[in-house]
């Protein structure tokens, strides 16, 4: 067979500009040099992809439907909270993956108080060794080139005996038969409730397609009767309507190992298989490959749903390949997993990843359906490509981070009339805008190791989708074991020279870290420099205190948590304090203090105790409404200590303000300067520095500077969100005074509808986003239907009188009356 690739008879790569797989006798192979480095892994729970869809504008329901509306709003908030929790859990899991995993029962304490854990010591030592060997991998690795074919097709639950060669074998005359063939299918069965729940037809249909592919690849026309040109099935994995199957050329089968598969359902209830992914990973010679076939959320407007499905499949796809296989993965270029005690690998732990399927991304809705149809039929693609949702989302970094895709040079692959080459325009069918739903992307640790030879579609027409295929020229590693062992012996000789001397010794430039005054939503980092002052290798790690399982308190982060230093080597350990909303609430309620002790253990040496402290600059953010209305002084002046606070203030709730002064100050400022601003509550909070200064003014009582109304609106939204997280709208403040919530709905209602540039979307935000934060005493929310003047008149005068301004800020309640007459 002519062309670059594998010669089936000799099972050797025929390279362009590179030596043969086996060097001639008496000669050393010449290796292609590839600079080390790898791209960072893609954010499982961007927070943008996890956000639910924005509610569509709707008219205010009649009084009789009020209760139903509130139930829907509560369900929406619960769903949003669940998605946020999922993102936080995934983030926490990724953060903790850097902690060394060692059995603490194996700790050994000597008579002089030194503690050693041999398991931890061995893992840290091996991690250092593999890091040195990987840095010299070009000395024992030769790189060869092969071809990988990827095909994807949504068959719409159809297919009988149609010829598949125009899809699977279309470019064999140009590029030659590929070395690896991967085919992915979507909707191989109808995605009805029975099939999703039982999968009673999936196995039968998956075997049908596997047999069809094998028959096509190994047809007499393709093999010419030569067994060295045949293909062998490695693995097939299905999930309801999804299927991925991998074939390899027969001569390569002996060099394929550690083949594993997985499936992830993200459909109904987030777990069912009507949407999701199936995947296969393997080691091909000494490179690791991963193939993922997915079917993501449908509907043109559901971009966030597709982004969320990708993040879920990416984060949940893992392969438990065992400790032996993971150690080999490490020796071939990855060390993080085994060093931390795991026996599985994820998507990013592979040299090359190929992601394909019906990703369901459409042409943006800004182009009408009729216009998309017209351009698609005329094959005028530039405008459609510019508005392709996947291109837009990737450019914004919201999905498929680190992946590449070839140029779209073919017409949209969906939606066709089955059995024809015509887009679906029949009067009795729903008119859909054509789209490139079917896509193929890839990611490589070494970007130069994957080159796309073609990216096109087939014209097989029995489905409403066209098949898509791509052939890649991939660079594969083949390790020369003798030379790797030579490098290993040299590294071990260097290590042994230091290990055979005496006990380790290190010095720390400080053990007491005082972060000073730390503010809300602020990250402060201080370093500790650790230096190996001894004559031998020093291994260190942070360990939990006593029976704790965490290294430190949640508001503190440490990186790295372990390491190894040769004599004279030094390293920085960074400690970072972050005051988020949860921590701020605990600090405000005296359930937490910025004080912690960390234990840094020197293996086969002593423990070092690191003291961390700081002072929290109290903020109204992270406080409940019930507490905020009790204080007339700036919140920064209110002591954190509950005893001092009780001595300084009369906490009688009868004297409480009906509105937190901080909330009123922002409303007053927006009224005065921001009524004519466009998109005041569009979701963007403005300049972070100005928002920070606004928070400082609220906390210290200082007069507002000339701040942007958008920043004030952002501070208002943030203040309301933070108060809502710590406010029980049905609770009562001690003393019997009911702390009825002031609806932020009404506070925004004061401003938004009165602005000359307010939009329907802003009014939706006012109605839907501002819920259950505060409610003025004296009226019940379900009965309130009047204007702002009625709201003020229904407020008891003694409570309105408590809205006393801070020095320098005049709060005029009469503005509410004037607003109502505008």
From TrEMBL:
Biased composition (Polar residues): 83-94
InterPro entries linked: Endo/exonu/phosph_ase_sf (IPR036691), Ig-like_fold (IPR013783), IP5 (IPR046985), IPPc (IPR000300), OCRL-1_2_ASH (IPR048869), Rho_GTPase_activation_prot (IPR008936)
Annotated ranges, domain Inositol polyphosphate-related phosphatase: 144-480
Domain of life: Eukaryota
One BP term from GO: phosphatidylinositol dephosphorylation
Matching SMART domains: IPPc
Molecular-function GO terms, alphabetical: phosphatidylinositol-4,5-bisphosphate 5-phosphatase activity
Region of interest (Disordered), residue spans: 1-94
Biased composition (Low complexity): 61-74
PANTHER family the record matches: INOSITOL 5-PHOSPHATASE, TYPE II INOSITOL 1,4,5-TRISPHOSPHATE 5-PHOSPHATASE
Protein's name according to its UniProt entry: Inositol polyphosphate-related phosphatase domain-containing protein
Organism: Thalassiosira oceanica
